Amino acid sequence: MLTLENVAIRQGDFSLRADFTIQAGQRVAVIGRSGAGKSTLLSLIAGFFPPEEGSVLFDGQNMTKAAPGKRPLAMLFQDNNLFPHLSVAQNVGLGVRPDLRLNQVQKSLVANAIERVGLSGLEDRKPAQLSGGQQSRVALARILVQDKPLVLLDEPFAALGPALKIEMLDLVAEVLEETGAALLMVSHDPQDARRIAPMTVLVADGVAYAPTETGALLDNPPPALKAYLG
Ligand SMILES: Nc1ncnc2c1ncn2[C@@H]1O[C@H](COP(=O)(O)OP(=O)(O)OP(=O)(O)O)[C@@H](O)[C@H]1O
Q1: Is the pLDDT of residue 23 over 90?
Q2: Which residue in 98, 86, 81, 82 sits closest to 125, CA to CA?
Q3: Which of 15, 31, 39, 200 best tests ligand 1's pocket when mutated (most atoms within 8 Å of CB)?
Q4: 165 lines ligand 1 (CB under 6 A)
Q5: Is 220 in the pocket of ligand 1 (CB under 6 A)?
Q6: Nearest protein Cα to ligand 1, atom 18
Q7: Predicted local distance difference test score (pLDDT) of residue 80
Q8: pLDDT (tens digit, 9 = 90+) per residue, 102-131?
Q9: Is 11 near ligand 1, meaning CB less than 6 Å away?
Q10: Could you report the predicted ipTM of this complex, rounded to two decimals?
Q11: What is the SS3 string spanning the chain?
Q12: 149 alpha carbon to ligand 1 midpoint, in Å?
């Protein structure tokens, strides 16, 4: 569903190449040492900047120059991006319509997503009145209502404790299983990859390598990954 075709990215003296495909519904982790280019790769796919060379295709359609909002993806980056002055329901509703003028069908879509992530009854709270884990659930509900075939996550649960993080990862895997969306998830923790991503993209030495099987990659890491895993 997503193809990076001979892509080359340059930011100052940093460069990164990528040439691979993510299949529909595939869950893929993105790992590599700090500064390797994981966030840069996701930003490129999201459309925040164009590649210097190569093409970005969604379902075979060349969208290299398409604006972020025109791409068939939903994204969640570090710190959840919730609006503090809006309620839970409004924060989720933004995923449906940025002006929040929702019709009945759209309102029930929002209610269903809130229920799916286990936040029924908290619709009217503001983010500050929620725990960190609950805030992550709101952000996930907003991803759900967007109903996009690709979800990009960049360390979204890094601020949560280990038990809560596992709970959120399992919830992400569950809901993506239900919706059939593909996932690209940046993580610093190889155990996150093992938990929910059967495939992994290793970013190292200026290359985002094609997805390989997560277990095999982590059990038999190439030198660049071995150095990172320690
Ligand atoms: N706007 C920019 N201009 C120039 N260089 C940049 C810019 N943004 C990032 N870089 C550089 O690009 C490289 C990749 O950064 P990136 O944030 O993608 O790495 P990362 O693998 O996500 O790291 P981390 O795990 O620490 O988040 C780094 O060397 C960084 O310094």
Answers
A1: yes
A2: 86
A3: 39
A4: no
A5: no
A6: 37
A7: 65
A8: 999 999 999 999 999 999 999 999 999 999
A9: yes
A10: 0.91
A11: CEEEEEEEEEECCEEEEEEEEECCCCEEEEECCCCCCHHHHHHHHHCCCCCCEEEEEECCEECCCCCHHHCCEEEECCCCCCCCCCCHHHHHHCCCCCCCCCCHHHHHHHHHHHHHCCCCCCCCCCHHHCCHHHHHHHHHHHHHHHCCCEEEEECCCCCCCHHHHHHHHHHHHHHHHHHCCEEEEECCCHHHHHHHCCEEEEEECCEECCCEEHHHHHHCCCHHHHHHHC
A12: 26
Separation between Cα atoms, residue 72 and residue 22, nearest integer Å = 13
> Which class is 1-72+167-230 in CATH?
alpha beta
Structural tokens at position 31: 């790992």
Q: Which amino acid is at 36?
A: A
9 lines ligand 1 (CB under 6 A): no
Distance 89 CA to ligand 1 centre (A): 34
Residue type, 52: E
